[in-house]
Amino acid sequence: MIRYLVRRVLLLLITLLVTSMIVFALTQFLPGDIARLILGRDASPEAIETFRQEFGLNESLPMQYVNWLGGFLTGNWGKSFAEGNPSVRPLVLDRLGNSLILAGFTLLISVPIAILLGVMAALRENTWLDSLISLLSLSVVGLPEFVTGIVLINIFALGLGWFEATSLIQDDYNIGDWLRILTLPAITASFVLIGYITRLTRAGMIDELKKPYVQTAILKGLPFCQVIFKHVLRNALLPTITVIAISIGWLMGGIVVIENVFNFPGMGSLLVKAVEQKNLPILQAVVVLIVFIFAAANLIADLIYAALNPRIRLN
Amino acid sequence: MAQRPMAFLGLIIVCGYLLVMLTAPMIAPHGFSDVLDDPNNCITRNNQTRCAALKNAPPSAEHLMGTDRNGRDVLSRIFYGTRETIGLPIVATLLSVMLGTVIGLAIGYYGGWIDEIVSRILDSLLAIPALIMALVTLATIVPTLAMSDIPLVQSLGAVNIALIFVITLLYTPIVARVIRSATLNLRDRGYVEIARLRGESTAYILFSEILPGVLPALVVEGSLRFSYAIFLVASLGFLGLGAQPPSPEWGRMVLDARSQYATAPWALWYPVLAIAILIISVNLMSDGLQRIFRHEAERE
Predict the structure, then answer these.
(1) Which residues of A touch B (CB under 8 A)?
(2) A55 HSE (CA, 13 A, CB side)
(3) End of a domain among A41, A73, A105?
(4) Which domain holds residue A117?
């Protein structure tokens, strides 16, 4: 187990290193001088030279990467290209906090609903209820986030006025204020997750229900609910648990579109803005963080799976 | 297929969309960037009639889906938009299916260190979430492509070429992994062994003996990838990082229409509806394919 763990953590670190190199290399493909791109055509040669000095753009490419990596590891994430050159780290970490709150709230809504729907569909396999659930999980749920997001905004925010259409976060927000801005983005994100987790839970339940121990349990007179929730579900949820961990990683990507639909001040909206403005220090920090969360979620998923299923532990 | 009405319905609707894509210039009443004249708002001076643009006109008999904030016909834009919203994903899906199949067949059949190395490279490409990878790649290759004078780029547009490239880059590893594992199941079968003993070439074994066996997995994966590619192209358009104005790509249309929602809601709802129906239909179709092939596999 220890060897497996060490191997996986090492793999994770290598992935992060390679990703940061890929991102760094990609940004070098930008045609023209990045300093001129940021400062504009009218910038004086002195201003451009100062900018290049300040951001270390005069050094060789490998040197720039090493400098960046060293800074990133020691907590100095550099300064943003944007007006006033704010420090990257507090800005990105602040946005990360908001995104994690949104992701956590999304999981809180979607996981219980998805497992319930999956169990219901499996228990009523091949009936109208099963067909309805699978039709819903294929249709409403498969839509792009911006489509569901816009429909929800127009009904519940602009139409009924129950929630906010855009998400401004202020320091003195209480739980009620948070719910008003979090609910719609979280429901939008939940749609995709619910579809995914429902289908997996249903498939797991159906496989499990066919096994002889279920028959035995029912025949020996155990209450049906107890058989389902204490015995079948526990085994059927094995793949689902890993899916939930993977979903956290997925959310980090899917949340980009959702945050832009709702103007939610998270990492996703920060990333899109950084791409538009060619704000490389922010772009690099955000991408590396997202990849880290994505990879860490996958690792945790595999570890949980290994812990629950001893047969694969030694591989 | 006929025994699965929902999948059949999905197939019919997808075919309808394809028909629109192929005939867009013939059936669209106007061009996608034509600014229409407002007949009630014209001045004639020196025998020349000049009209104001017909902005934000509600749906009517002449303009079934109304006009947008620039005075362009929404229906015509939706018709033309199929070329980017559906055409690009088709090209990118075909490319990644072809590349992924060749790679998957080869590494699955040869195994050993080739498989080990290629699989690691494919895994590392999958370590970055698709949308993030697409954002970063697009942002950097579009300006580079835009400055080049390659004829293909000039005729198709830098963004379109970049989108095809990015989607192919993202989906080839996924297809390759699926085909690899399907190939692993087949390579030790008797008929493959016999072909080998007959002295057939490796290419013959891969494409004539193994490929037919992995075809069901390929069709299912292809239809799934197609659905995700539509999703990705439209999402990037909506983020403002894919198609650029005056492109009628549907995600871009939604983005452009959002700020005008109060005055011209139809310019927002019709592209939203068009993309929703398309994706639901593709998903129903691909779910039907999956069920059919799984059914056949179980019978075997």
Answers:
(1) 15, 18-19, 22-23, 26-27, 29-32, 134-135, 138-139, 142-147, 150-151, 154, 158, 249-250, 252-254, 256-257, 260, 271-272, 275-276, 278, 283, 287, 290-291, 294-295
(2) 23
(3) A73
(4) 89-314
